Amino acid sequence: MWSCSIKTYLRTHLCFSILYITYYLQKAPFAAFAARTRGEYDWVNIKIFPNTKIANQESDTYRTAFGDIIEKYEAFDLTVVRHPTFIQAMNYSIKEFYEFCEKWFRKFPSFSE
User: Fold this and answer.
1) What CA–CA distance (Å, rounded) separates 104 from 44?
2) Apex CA 30: angle with CA 85 and CA 26, to 5°?
3) How far is CA 90 from the centre of its chain?
4) How far is the C-alpha of 55 from the C-alpha of 41, rounded, in Å?
5) pLDDT category of residue 107 using cuts at 50, 70 and 90
6) What is the sign of the dihedral through the CA atoms of 67, 69, 72 and 77?
7) Of 41, 39, 31, which Cα lies nearest the Cα of 8?
8) What is the CATH number of domain 2-104?
């Protein structure tokens, strides 16, 4: 499981980019939790991946896709000591992960298992 905190730059196209990030996190099958914040970071999200390779691929592509507005990006590996009962983000296959990323990030290098 990964946690991610993001601080964004203020840019002229920020409104569109915020809508795009919001939509991405709403549709991502691996996003267990995502929220806008007030404080040092603008976004906090928790994404669940079946392995480190997939987590790294998504993180690299996410930063590439939204890097024009990201000022600070921190990712953390989490060791879960108590699983929340509401999380359904592991209900996707590795194939579904790659299909989602191919759909969202067509302009970037393709994903492969």
Assistant:
1) 20
2) 95
3) 14
4) 21
5) low
6) negative
7) 41
8) 3.30.70.920
Question: Do 112 and 98 contact (CB within 8 A), yes or no?
Answer: yes
Residues ≥6 apart with Cβ < 8 Å to 35: 43, 44, 45
Distance CA 3, CA 13 (A): 26
Separation between Cα atoms, residue 89 and residue 87, nearest integer Å: 6
Structure tokens at 37: 């914040």
Confidence of residue 70 (pLDDT cuts 50, 70, 90): confident
Phi-psi region of 8 (alpha: psi -120 to 50; beta: other; left: phi over 0): beta
Cβ atoms of residues 63 and 73 within 8 Å: yes
Residue 48 CB partners (closer than 8 Å, separation 6+): 1, 2, 30, 32, 87, 89, 90
The rounded distance, in Å, linking the Cα atoms of 74 and 103 is 25
Averaged confidence pLDDT in the chain: 78
Q: pTM to 2 decimals?
A: 0.67
